[in-house]
Amino acid sequence: MIVSLKNIYFSYGRVQALGGVDLDLSEGATGLLGPNGAGKSTLLRILLGFLAPQRGEGRVLDYDIRLEQHHIRRYVGYMPEDDCLIPGMDAVTFTAYFGELSGMPRQEAMKRAHDVLFYVGLGESRYRLLETYSAGMKQRLKLAQAIVHDPRLLFLDEPTSNLDPQGRREILELIKDISSRKDIQVLICSHILSDIESVCSHVVILNKGRVAAQGQISELKQLKFRLYEVRIKGEAEGFVERLKNIGCRVDVAEDKVLKVYMPAERDISDFFRQALEANIQVRHFVRSQTSLEELFAQAVGVD
Ligand code: ADP
Q: Alpha helices, DSSP H only, in 135-192?
């Protein structure tokens, strides 16, 4: 197991940020999803060894998160959400500096800095001062400094923030390429569901300091309910009430168009019985794929 956390609690004074998190990550790319304030950054800081949990225990790459943080930092790469760039430096110096901070000898760090800058597409601009970089170049540079020391585990915090669609696609391609290597595990923290879906096989959904759901995206999508898109003729309100009474969650997408989340134990005939009794004509009824967005809404209880 690459990351394994058990019953982790962390509070900032009176504010509880994590309230009993269990987390197991194995091979591949994992997405860490959750609304603002869910505890994602706090969890990352604990995994990086920057914060020690007040309760609970855990291991990252087989090192204890409380006692062996210095080892963890050697093998972990981190791309923060905020800019961490140093004005007046060029990209090679900056990237090599981060290599040295992770324990690489200077010459080796310098050599690797050139390599990773070419890899992320900044080869031509590697001697330019960082303050002249565009938003997209800054993101690439942050990615370069995170991988310069060849980490086994890579944490990316909102890697596509501030990017236009083209920049976003490019950075996601890079992340995909990195995470396709056998020897590296990637954890991507994001609130952009489509980004997670395009890169990750697994997802952990955090809400209010706890894990609301975790697992393989393809399996989670099929869990618990089936989604139907329904167009009706008749009075929607009473019908929606009836469906809720038999355990469905219903979103009214537009007038007379409903998204009905049917619990696994219910049958389609239950739906049609309710329609009949509510004097509703069903004009259109199709089974939909649940997207991660809907799964996310369900897991965190947001309507
Ligand atoms: P996320 O990254 O999912 O937005 P955070 O881990 O930043 O969540 O925050 C979790 C909770 O902890 C929130 O209620 C937040 O307000 C609180 N929090 C985060 N950092 C601090 C801090 N330095 N001091 C006090 N409270 C904090």
A: 135-147, 165-179
